[in-house]
Amino acid sequence: MSKSHTQSIIDAGRWIDAQGWCPATGGNFSRRTGAQEVLITASGRHKGHLQDTDLLQVDLAGHVLDSDLKPSAETLLHTRLYQLDDQMGAVLHTHSVNATVLSLTTPGDWLQIEQLEMQKSLSGNQTHDAAIRIAIFDNTQDMQALAQDVAQRWQQGALSWGLLVRGHGLYAWGRDMPEARRHLEGLEFLFACQLELRRLGVKPAVEGARS
Predict the structure, then answer these.
(1) What are phi and psi of 143, to 5 degrees?
(2) pLDDT at position 113
(3) Based on CB atoms within 10 Å of each CB, which residue in 96, 111, 179, 182 is the most buried?
(4) How many CB atoms lie within 10 A of CB 168?
(5) Which domains does the chain have, with CATH numbers?
(6) In a structure prediction context, what are the per-residue pLDDT tens digits for the chain, which is 211 residues long?
(7) What is the 3-state secondary structure (H, E, C) of the chain?
(8) Are strands 132-137 and 162-165 parallel, antiparallel or unpaired?
(9) Res 206: pLDDT
(10) How far is it, in rounded angstroms, from Cα 201 to Cα 209?
């Protein structure tokens, strides 16, 4: 595997750990290494202390390629995302407090965000005036079922930048690792603003909408 591929995941892990977005051994990070291959963190590894020996290669069906390491069950959602978009280059799954709390306290299938300049950190957004929506999925231990739910909504053209899993955390992605990191950081800022607005009793026009 490419040293640059490995180092980009290690560096992302150290940065994300410094933000407090992946406590304990939570989360999973991956990046595409070929048309049908993905490099991903092994199960049970602390993301702030990753080494190259904590990463393994899987194919897009989630099968381990030449490694004795155990992949996380959440690997199946990563590989499904790569199947859905052949331009996707990296996926970062985190467990921040803000993402987790928002996912639990937002009714419906969407978190809607508007009137925040940081919306422009997300690719394709040129203004704060256009509302954005982040999809929310109910948590389940059946990753095949969750991956299928994500695929169904993806086919509706309804997913961009990331998604929330209720009571679990955030998946953010991009065409490469720098874009995935930018989307993650931008979304985390937007989530923090949403929670502060709620704390202050300021309600956006539409917070949650059932699809």
Answers:
(1) -70, -25
(2) 86
(3) 111
(4) 20
(5) 3-199 (3.40.225.10)
(6) 577 899 999 999 999 999 999 999 999 999 999 999 999 999 999 999 999 999 999 999 999 998 999 998 899 999 999 999 999 999 999 999 999 999 999 999 999 988 888 888 987 767 676 788 899 999 999 999 999 999 999 988 778 899 999 999 999 999 999 999 999 999 999 999 999 999 998 875 544 444 4
(7) CCHHHHHHHHHHHHHHHHHCCCCCCCCEEEEEEECCEEEEEECCCCHHHCCHHHEEEEECCCCEECCCCCECCCHHHHHHHHHHCCCCCEEEEECCHHHHHHHHHCCCCEEEECCCHHHHHCCCCCCCCCCEEEEEECCCCCHHHHHHHHHHHHHCCCCCCEEEECCCEEEEEECCHHHHHHHHHHHHHHHHHHHHHHHCCCCCCCCCCCC
(8) parallel
(9) 47
(10) 19
Tokens coding 111:
């978190």
What's the rounded Cα separation, in Å, for the pair 56 and 84?
A: 21
Contact assessment for residue 122 and residue 207, using Cβ atoms and an 8 Å cutoff: no
Q: What dihedral angle (degrees, nearest 10) is formed by the CA atoms of 7, 3, 73, 61?
A: 140
The residues with which 113 forms a beta bridge, in sequence order, are 132
pLDDT on residue 130: 75
Give the span between the Cα atoms of 183 and 192, in whole angstroms.
14
d(CA 157, CA 160): 8
Amino acid sitting at position 38: V
| Cα–Cα dist 165/95, whole Å | 10
Dist. CA 165–CA 169, nearest whole Å:
5
